[in-house]
From TrEMBL:
It comes from Sphaeramia orbicularis (orbiculate cardinalfish). This is Nuclear envelope phosphatase-regulatory subunit 1. Belongs to the CNEP1R1 family. The lineage of its organism: Eukaryota, Metazoa, Chordata, Craniata, Vertebrata. GO terms for biological process: lipid metabolic process. InterPro entries: NEP1-R1. The gene is cnep1r1.
Length: 109
């Protein structure tokens, strides 16, 4: 494969990658907002759970039962990570790194 064909392949790859990432942007924004909202809810619930004086006096499960907002938001956050929200939020922002790595790979070889 000569250098002209490699350059054309790189340009085609770059265009296709740009199209793919641009299609992901609206969905990524929604997933980021969901992650932010659930994270803020979990942090707020954790703060209220920690400053409650009864938390030290009762058992762990009783304190979770007494703070349903924190419990539900924490379970939701864990479920979102198990569902792969971290991949949906981070993948489109990795585009410049993927493009640069491919360019370096083609340049070296």
């Amino acid at each position: 494969m000569n250098s002209l064909e490699q350059a054309e392949d790189l340009k085609a790859f770059e265009r296709r990658l740009t199209e793919y990432v641009s299609c992901l942007q609206p969905a990524t924004g929604r997933w980021r907002m969901i992650l932010i909202v659930v994270s803020v809810c979990t942090a707020t619930g954790a703060w209220n759970w920690l400053i409650d004086p009864d938390t030290q006096k009762v058992s762990f499960f009783s304190s979770l039962w007494n703070h349903p907002f924190f419990t539900i938001s924490c379970i939701t956050l864990i479920a979102l990570f198990f569902a792969g929200i971290h991949k949906r939020v981070v993948a489109p922002s990795m585009y410049p790194f993927l493009s640069l790595n491919y360019f370096i790979y083609c340049f070296i070889y």
